[in-house]
Every structure is written in C-alpha cells, then in structure tokens.
Specification:
The complex is a heterodimer of chains A (about 250) and B (about 260).
Chain A lengths: L27 H29 L4 H23 L16 H15 L4 H15 L8 H19 L9 H16 L4 H17 L24 H16 L3
Chain B lengths: L2 H16 L4 H8 L3 H13 L3 E3 L5 E3 L1 H13 L1 H17 L2 E8 L2 E8 L14 E3 L4 H8 L2 H9 L14 H14 L2 E4 L6 E9 L5 E10 L8 H16 L4 E2 L9 E2 L1
Helix pairs in contact in B: 1-3, 2-3, 5-9, 6-8
C-alpha cells in the first residue's frame, strides 16, 4: 500500500513526490485532498442543504457544514504545517510526517467545536472514531479504512441512538460502511471500494425521502417530516463522495 | 368511559399520527370492524373534524384547528406566560418554551423564538417524552405520582445516546431538582441542545407545567445567571396563577415566598 505514497512510515527527507494518480490507500495526502474536496463540495451544496433543512429543521445545516469544513481545512493545514504530510519535496521537513489517522482526528476535533447543532458532535465523533481506528502507519489499506468506517458508524450510533430508517445520517453512513467492508473483504482496491461506498451513501440519502424522522429535531414534526430528504444523510453522502473524488476514483 | 367517545378520540389520534389513512387501515389499527369505524368517521366528517381526500383517504379536518387554536388562546398557563417568556427570551438570548404534561410526554404549548432573527422551527404542539427534557423533569420532580407511573412502565425510550433512561438515576435527578427547583438536560432530547427549566404551580400549589430555555450545548451556562432568570420567570408565572409559594411548602422545606 505504498505505491503512491512518498515515503514509508516515519521516513523523511527527499521523498519522491507521487503524482496524483488514483490512490491505493488512505494516507495523509489523500486526507488533505479529501478535506479540500469536502470544503469545495459543501460550499457548492450550501443552499441546497439549507433548503432541505428549512423543510424539517432550523435551516442552518448548510451554513453549519460550510463553517465546519473551513475549520477542518484549517485544522489539517495546521497539523500538516506542524508535522508535514510526508508528501513534501522540501528537504528540511519535520522529522515525523503526520499520518492520515492524526489528520482525521484533528478534523474530528475541529468539527466538534465549529459545527453547531447536532451535526457538530455527530460529525466530530465520526471523524474522531475514524481517526482512532485507522492505523498509525500511513497508509491505511482499503480493508483498514472500511474497518474504521464501521467503527465510526458505531460511535455515531452510540451517540445519537439512531438506527437505519430513523431518517438521519446513519441512513447514508450505514449502507456505505457495510458495503465498503464487504467489497474490501473480497479484495476490492481503494477506488472500487470508495465508488461502492459513495454510491451506497447517495442511495441511502435518497431513500430517506419517504421516511418519518425518529431522531433529532425533525422528529418533532412527526408525519410532516415525510417527503423530505434528510439534510444529515445528504451531507454524509457528500463527505463520502468527496473522498471518492479525492482518491481519483 | 363512554365507548363511542373514546373510539372517536382514538380515530382522531390515529389520523394525527399517520396523517392519511383508508377506512380499512383505520379499522385494523383500532382492531374494530370496518362498519363500526365507518360510522364514527362519517360522524366526524359531518362535524368537520375529519375530511376525506379525493383518493378516499381520511385526514384531520379544519375543525381540529379551530379547537386547537381555542385551546392555545384560552389556556390560562399560556396566557399568563406570554409576557414573562418574552422577557426571558430577551434577557437570556435563548429560545423559551412552556410545556404541560400529557400522559408520558410534555406537550409544548408556547414557544418564543431565540431573539436573533434566524429561521427557527415552530415547536408549539410538539411532544417530547417527559424524561428526555428538562421541562418534563421539572414537572416530574413535583408530581411523584406521575413519575412513579412513568417509571413503572420501562423501558423508557432513548431519544439520543445521552437520554437518561435509568429510573434510579432519574429518581436521583428529580430529588436534586426538588431542592432548588431547577431542572437541566444536555443533549438528551436533541444532540447539541441543552435546557434549563423550572416548574410552574397553580393556585392549588399543584405543578401544571414548566418553563425553560433552550440553548446550544456548547454554550450551556456555567454560572447561575440563566437558571436564576428561569427560576424568576417560573415564580412570576406561578404567582399570576395564584400559587402561594414556589416551590410549594408541601414539597420543599424552605420555599421562596411568591
């Protein structure tokens, strides 16, 4: 899993700079590209997310998520600035480049603080759990990433007490995590796995439309929440599709 | 209980929950013969409480809105709370809600938006399981019979991973609430939302509801400013309703004179 990675774990110095070809594992540089793509995609989707949330919430999901993405980009830049991402061509880099795991944890902490409402703790928890389970060695294999995705889903479900069908982000994250793990277990490469995961998340988000919300503020609406796509499931699908794009899949 | 009246109410509640139902769906949910349900529904349609859409499905009718508006406009607690809750929202910068107990829930009967001009969901009419909200805990603390009935039918639902559903823990919380009249909740009904609430008493010194603020969990108060404001509001509303002390002497050793 080190073909596109500049250097093996802990190495420093004049690592060969890899071209942005399809990634084969989740390394620090892919996390940097991922969060930049998340930022771009959420800004493009801000008004759409706000509209979805206006139907069944406080109409603040779009602005909350873009604020979170900005903070996450800054957190990644800070961490890379302090530790290096292992992709620098510069000679005098820090001695220990950061890892995907540490960057993803930093994203989690920044999201917890910066996104308001329920999404802050939920996405903060998702990224933090993802980072905790990713291997400290760059880069994570598809199966290691899939395992971390499942752990991140578990943490979100623990916090939110939501099951599939409750019309929450779990409706996007659960099928994505399950299908990613299935295909990774049977040997899929990163690109193939992320295509499957992103597709499952998107399908899951769309499948929330007829559901009645059973968790969160939208559940206050009872039957009136039916017929609207869940904003949290939608932003979760955007996150996973941004990872697919960033990985060149 | 008059059976036909009870059944008519059951029909209305089914329609509230499901929005639109066919006669056969209604009948099976109520475990009654189609003919019985048809008679009830036809009567409710004739009185405007239920209406039938083009596809033949039944839904609540405009008569229900007339009833609920009159409930809101004539509810003594809500009327007394109007100015006090407005002032509480102004001073605290938080959204304010007044709720009353209904079965195992708290029904929100008044909601003042957070005074920042943002888009907010109107919460009048929503119900929240009582154990998951500070409004409910404030009521339960001073209504031990209701608390016992609630705790007797376990398990209590989890609204988030942080909803307290352990009846011993809840009982200990209610004990603390009885001491200072302030109930709190954090991420228990909705992740990211914290509440501070206090009970409201009527002229019989019976708890009839609660008033509370809602704020982001990240801004949850660390000092007593907000809880003092909430307590003052609950005392003022209770005094207007004729309560003689807050909390009443029967539940507290050294009550504040209202």
């Amino acid at each position: 899993m080190s073909t596109t990675k500049g250097a093996p774990d802990g190495a420093s110095g004049p690592a060969a700079r890899a071209a942005i070809t399809p990634a084969t594992g989740l390394d620090a540089r892919l996390v940097e590209r991922w969060i930049a793509e998340v930022d771009r995609r959420l800004r493009a989707a801000e008004s759409h997310l706000t509209e979805l949330d206006a139907a069944i919430g406080d109409a603040d999901h779009g602005t909350n998520m873009t604020r979170g993405a900005r903070a996450a980009v800054a957190a990644v830049a800070d961490t890379v600035g302090a530790e290096g991402s292992g992709g620098e061509s510069r000679q005098a880099g820090p001695t220990t480049p950061t890892t995907a795991a540490r960057l993803v944890m930093a994203i989690g902490h920044s999201l917890s603080r910066s996104i308001g409402g329920a999404s802050g703790p939920l996405y903060g928890t998702w990224f933090s759990a993802l980072g905790r389970v990713l291997p400290e060695t760059d880069a994570a294999t598809p199966l290691e990433l899939a395992t971390a995705l499942r752990a991140a889903l578990d943490a979100v479900q623990q916090l939110g007490a939501a099951e599939v069908g409750d019309k929450t982000m779990v409706d996007a994250l659960a099928p994505a995590s399950r299908q990613a793990h299935e295909v990774a277990s049977s040997g899929a490469d990163l690109a193939g796995m992320l295509r499957i995961a992103a597709g499952a998340a998107e399908d899951g988000a769309i499948a929330t439309i007829p559901l009645r919300a059973r968790r969160g503020r939208a559940s206050y609406l009872g039957a009136r929440s039916e017929g609207h796509q869940d904003p949290g499931a939608t932003s979760a699908a955007i996150l996973l599709d941004a990872l697919r794009t960033a990985a060149g899949a | 209980m008059i059976q036909s009246v009870d059944r008519a109410v059951a029909v209305l509640l089914e329609l509230q929950g499901a929005r639109r139902l066919r006669l056969t769906e209604l009948a099976s949910r109520l475990s009654l013969p189609n003919s019985t349900v048809h008679g009830i529904v036809a009567t409710l349609v004739a009185r405007g409480m239920v209406e039938q859409d083009l596809s033949g499905r039944y839904a609540l009718g405009p008569g229900v809105l007339r009833l609920s508006n009159v409930y809101l406009d004539s509810n003594e607690l809500r009327l007394r709370a109007l100015t006090w809750t407005e002032a509480l929202a102004e001073r605290s910068g938080c959204a304010v809600r007044v709720g009353v107990p209904l079965e195992r829930d708290i029904v929100v009967i008044h909601h003042v938006f957070r005074p920042d001009g943002s888009h907010q969901m109107r919460e009048i009419g929503i119900d929240i399981p009582a154990h998951g909200t500070a409004l409910g805990k404030a009521v339960l603390a001073f209504d031990p019979t209701r608390a016992q009935r609630l705790f007797a039918v376990a398990p209590l639902p989890k609204l988030t991973g942080r909803t307290c559903v352990d009846t011993d823990d809840l009982a200990a919380q209610l004990e603390r609430i009885r001491e200072d009249g302030i109930a709190t909740a954090s991420d228990e009904a909705i992740l990211g939302e914290a509440e501070v609430a206090a009970p409201i008493f009527d002229a019989n010194d019976t708890v009839i509801g609660a008033v509370g603020v809602v704020l982001p969990t990240s801004d949850a108060p660390t000092d007593r400013t907000v809880s003092d404001e909430v307590r003052r509001t609950a005392v003022s509303i209770s005094r207007e309703l004729g309560a003689t002390a807050w909390p009443p002497r029967s539940t507290q050793r050294e009550p504040t004179e209202t």
